[in-house]
Amino acid sequence: MPTIRRTYVCRIQNHSQVAGALDDHGWSASKLWNVANYYARQQWDETGEIPDENELKHELKTYPKYKGLHSQSSQKVLEELSEAFSSWFGSDDDRDNPPGYRKRNYYDNDGNRVHEEHPRSTVTWKQKGIRHDTKHGRLRLSKGKNHKDGRDFILCEYQAPPAVELENIQQVRAVYNSGKDRWELHIVCEKEIGAESPGENTAGVDLGICNPAAVAFPDDALLYPGNTLREDKHYFQ
């Protein structure tokens, strides 16, 4: 039976208890992004080539910042950086810039850097880093090695949207909502859908590169842009 992935935004009920741990992991994700970004830029300057995600994972897996997250979460950060570099490298717009660093520097009156701050980046847990307690509405999210202080996981009590039952969870994303000054969980579930019987009309599909698909209907048309496809790839991997 065909399946579809749906994302549900859930409120964290015990936010005060888990906010500190989520902050630590969000900052670790930013720092890993910056370290990998620096390495990729060095390789670009020295060889003229951008390292792919496999090289990034191989080179950075022993780096302390890599251990600030669960291994799959660290891999996801590097995959997103690799995709960002690939998009920049393949762009034909001279105004585009390579992926930036995730930090803000502060300087004194003499121009010396005195402080830097890192944003709380989104942290993604895949299935190996997730344990779902359906009975009590809780998620156990594995901590990175650097943050295991007597407990190996972050225990989040969640509130799902009305009439939503979370099943077949594929990934959990902890997303910091700066407007609300709190974390929330974006939970991706895989659901089976019934196959619909084919209709009487036909559609023509033109496959491309920048725009992967253009679909023509008898009285309408649909363009699926490449940037949307890349966003979906980032979100659901």
Plain-language structure description:
This protein folds into three domains: 3-15 and 120-192, no CATH class; 27-117, no CATH class; 204-236, no CATH class. It is built from four helices and twelve strands. It has helices at residues 15-47, 53-60, 71-89, 226-236; strands at 3-12, 104-107, 113-117, 123-126, 130-133, 138-142, 153-159, 169-177, 182-192, 204-207, 213-216, 221-224. The strands form three sheets. A seven-stranded antiparallel sheet has the order 4-8-9-1-7-6-5. A three-stranded antiparallel sheet has the order 10-11-12. Strand 10 (204-207) and strand 11 form a beta hairpin. The longest helix is centred in the N-terminal third of the chain and has 33 residues, at 15-47. It starts with a strand and ends with a helix.
Distance between the termini: 21 Å
Rough outline: globular
Number of helices: 4
Q: Sheet with the most strands?
A: 7 strands, antiparallel
Low-confidence stretches: none
Q: Could you report the average pLDDT, rounded to the nearest whole number?
A: 87
Can you write the helix and strand succession as a string? EHHHEEEEEEEEEEEH
| SS strand fraction | 25-35%
Kindly state the percentage of residues in helix: 25-40%
Query: Measured on Cα atoms, how large is the radius of gyration?
Result: 21 Å
How many domains make up the 3D coordinates?
Answer: 3
Let me know the number of strands. Answer: 12
Largest beta sheet: strand ordering: 4-8-9-1-7-6-5
User: Based on helices, strands and strand pairing, what is the structural class?
Assistant: alpha+beta
